[in-house]
Predict the structure.
Amino acid sequence: MTEIIRINPTDPEINRVIRAAKVIREGGTVAFPTETVYGLGANGFDPAACRRIFEIKGRPADNPLILHILGPDWLDRVAGEVGGRAMEFAEKAWPGPITLVLKKNAKVPGVVTAGLDTVAIRCPAHRIALELIEYSGVPIAAPSANLSTKPSTTRFEHVVDDLDGKVDVIIDGGDATFGVESTIINMTVEPPVLLRPGAFTVEELEKHLGRIMVPEAVNRTATDGEVAIAPGMKYRHYAPDKMLVLANDSTILRGAAMMAADMDDPIAILCSSETANSLMKSIKLRNISVIILGSEGNLYEVARNLFDAFRALDETSAKMGIVQKFDDKGIGMAIMNRISKATGNSAIEKLGDLEGMLEAQ
Ligand code: AMP
Ligand code: MG
């Protein structure tokens, strides 16, 4: 049985937070909102509770979890060596959507870090998450609150779809602010290395840390035999059940829409409001579902709607989805990273490719 606890995200009812915190302390699992996406949390010092997270999600045991802490003061509870630079950065950037990878200390169980000697740590900028950590009194290990491979959950309803009946508590605390996961940076090396682009932009990172390394491999799924830069990177991620491909440019998107209009194998187009308007002016969008991600002038809106759109694609009668390319500056880098993972790096470069793809569905 899953208990639903509704909590006001801007002014949390403390008695309700305490009820959820008790479940964490007693070794249970609690799905809770953060400013990035919903998390599936358990006591980060309790190996059995953390193992439940992997079982519930169907998550491979070699994909480590992020520990959520109350602030930089808690770093020495979980990290071995913090170092002045990491401490200074944490003090400036937290609470916020940035996860630091540091050397772990002996108290952090191997199940959390998948046996690595490093641990991923962040302090979320969300009232409910912070109060839950405070009243639990322990670091909360939490990956995104979705079934493994599925898009992360950004709304309470999506958490219920994936986890109802599997976790002890789901907190209903409204929608996530950013809609994409935290940025992950490895601070154990110099210069620090970006392991996952996220809601905290590379531009902001450089402002705080100076030069950082952005490996080419960060935006694609590791190929067979290749060592992934972060353990989670080798897995298919964020994917709708239906096939999703990227349209490399707007001509392809338009061509695809025209082509699909004459077929009984409908496609769905995931695009900006600007693209949708321009498509609708020139073509009759018969047989096509259009899922609007937001305005190109506000990529934060696109990020917030992205995982929702992936889930919406599965609800349409379309055989497959085609998603528009976005500028990869700022939060756009996280958007394009999630799109690359969700499409398994597959893009339509010429219209002829689409016919074959549709036939294969
Ligand atoms: P999730 O919270 O579901 O977005 O997953 C957490 C991500 O953090 C995974 O993709 C892991 O690869 C990454 N991660 C966690 N711990 C470490 C670590 N010690 N070193 C590198 N990456 C990590
Ligand atoms: Mg995840």
Observations:
- The mean pLDDT is 92.
- The domain at 243-360 is CATH 3.40.50.11030 (Rossmann fold).
